[in-house]
Amino acid sequence: MTIHQSPEAFGYDAFLRQHQNKEVLRFITCGSVDDGKSTLIGRLLHDTKQIFDDQVTALQRDSRKHGTQGGEVDLALLVDGLQAEREQGITIDVAYRFFSTDRRSFIVADTPGHEQYTRNMATGASTADVAVILVDARHGLTRQTRRHALLVSLLGIRRVALAINKMDLVGWSQDKFEAIVSGFQAFAAPLNFIEVRAIPLSAKNGDNVVLPGAAATWYTDVPLLRYLEDVPVKSEERAAAFRMPVQWVNRPNSDFRGFSGLIASGSVAPGDAVTVAPSGKTSTIARIFTADGDLKRASEGQSVTLVLADEIDASRGAVIATSDAPLTLTDSLDVRLFWAAESDLVPGANLWAKVGTQTVNAVVKAVHRRIDPETGQAGPAAKLAVNDIGDVTLTLDRQIAVDPYAENRDTGSLILIDRETTDTAALGLVQTVVASSKVAPAPTASVTASAEPARSGGLLAGLKRLFGG
Amino acid sequence: MSAAVAAPLRTRLTHLQRLEAESIHIFREAVAEAENPVMLYSIGKDSSVLLHLALKAFAPGRLPFPLMHIDTTWKFREMIAFRDRRAKELGLELIVHTNQDGLAKGIGPVSHGSEVHTDVMKTQALRQALDKYKYDVAFGGARRDEEASRAKERIVSLRNGQHRWDPKRQRAEPWHLYNFKKRRGESFRVFPLSNWTELDIWLYIEQENIPIVPLYFAAERPVVERDGQLIMVDDDRFPLEPGETPQQRQVRFRTLGCYPLTGAVESPAATLPEIIGETLAARTSERQGRVIDKDGAGAMERKKQEGYF
User: I need a surface site. Which of A37, A49, A408, B301 has the fewest CB within 10 A?
Assistant: First the structure.
């Protein structure tokens, strides 16, 4: 079906163009220990012919030494790369895996289901289009399943493949499958997923992963890989305003001055009126420079260098927005944190916050509540401990331009950095943005959680239902 | 006003365009936050792509950092010629560093074996050079698909004062937010090609017409067989068995390194489309041609912890 065709089959040129014109889908796999995540990824790699003969030989050798499949080839060892993981038969850290078919390239974030899972899974989910949530058919939904579903929902993932694994061990029972599916749907209703696609499979045997499984005659839908080839990528579903954080001012000589950055959202064309935060200066786009020539339009995901019609002052950390949707400036941020440091977070703590391309000083003004990782219910809290999810208010030492995370994953996210260890202590999602000053001269609206993003279908509404916000 | 421009509102980006944009973003972030950055240039195809992306990231300006090559003195002669030609054509600042102690002791892959040679002439040499020039950010062309322990390394990878990598003390790297804060003496290795695969590299080289060392293309070359590998006899330092003469075979290389440690593959692929076709149909991984990866299980993870790239 979708396995790579040989170039001889239809000519080198057509073959090249097809592969050069593929798009990419990023997804995250989550599940509990022993749900078979690593085996599933190993199966996807193996059955799409990404595994080479020398790796299979090494795999056979390693399976005898460390395998958990009783001497049979253990596909999990393909992805558990660190010595400690192989010895203990567990996955320690986020691993990124790659495979491709004739239709798409895939980047997989494989995250552990236990240790540091909050931090690792939030990291993997932060750039993912889709989540594949694994369930062991024998055990059904577990506390971990609920935690993982809640977490990917909080990070803004809207489409889920519910991979009900080890179906061979329950005799491919349709009743079991349907009981798990309806249980998940009931639990996930407030999480506001656009789509939950349930697929019965056996990663170990390969049924319904890449190829259809003959064992389940009652399942007539597509295997997991086909779903991943067809599902829309996230950015296509977003119609956000133009935002580009300035990374670098490119000034090779007195004739050229451009602002380099990765477009976080929206699109822009020469002639568009723009407002630069935090200065509030306005200008128009004169050129969209790239090394391959100027562009007539550039959009989300492109790295470009913008040349403005006027000589205005802007440096790294500024954000360029179109003037019809200017940014809000604030020095007080309500943020949902995924706390990753070993030490507790308490009010008064002083950290660095990296937001887009700028780093500012942040003091924790208040810790408001902690989110129960299984139910999603908010409860009062005075501090956050490692792996906690909770809401805080940060006071910044200067005004910065942000959007709510629900509207924009890139201009609404931040990391907190411990000033002593310099480690990344937390991942943060900007909740509501209340302007503490206006970005002159455009009128500045106060954007709150009630402002539903245009086409994102009510994620905020779902979260509000969930958390009673 | 912009409505007059005949262009679609949303550009549907290919996976190569997204990879390119991500790599350029990483270059710009690292350079903006670094005090003294350098790019490690190994002359191979990944380095060629890395250099191409770096030039794009800072165009129309010049490259804001030098290139550094760790020369073990055992590289293929064609690699060195290619390196010097490209540096001249592009007007690049190129630093070449060799471990002079190792050289004086006569350390080499043939006399001392791959493990000692790689440790002294590559790992130790790299550490010497980074300490000598006090670079705090070093770009490298490593990819996560190359090897299992690399799949777990961050794009921005913290090294301690001894250049060691600690896989258990890695920072979360969400969205496009990279943490460049560090303590005294620590430094970063930055891998803009983390999310590229071998196939992506070849497709991009073809699409962008990027120059690469001719050794990647099949040609008649003098080889001998050692431990199941075809080794090209590139100069008279290679010890031949009594009565042995190198055979002319149609071969090419999937990776490049020190010539006595780099296995060739028999192949008729003399053009990029043919190489890409072979890559897709390949039954062995590119690292199979690297002798150093076989220095025992977990060899790469251990080398990386010791400071190997």
Answer: A49
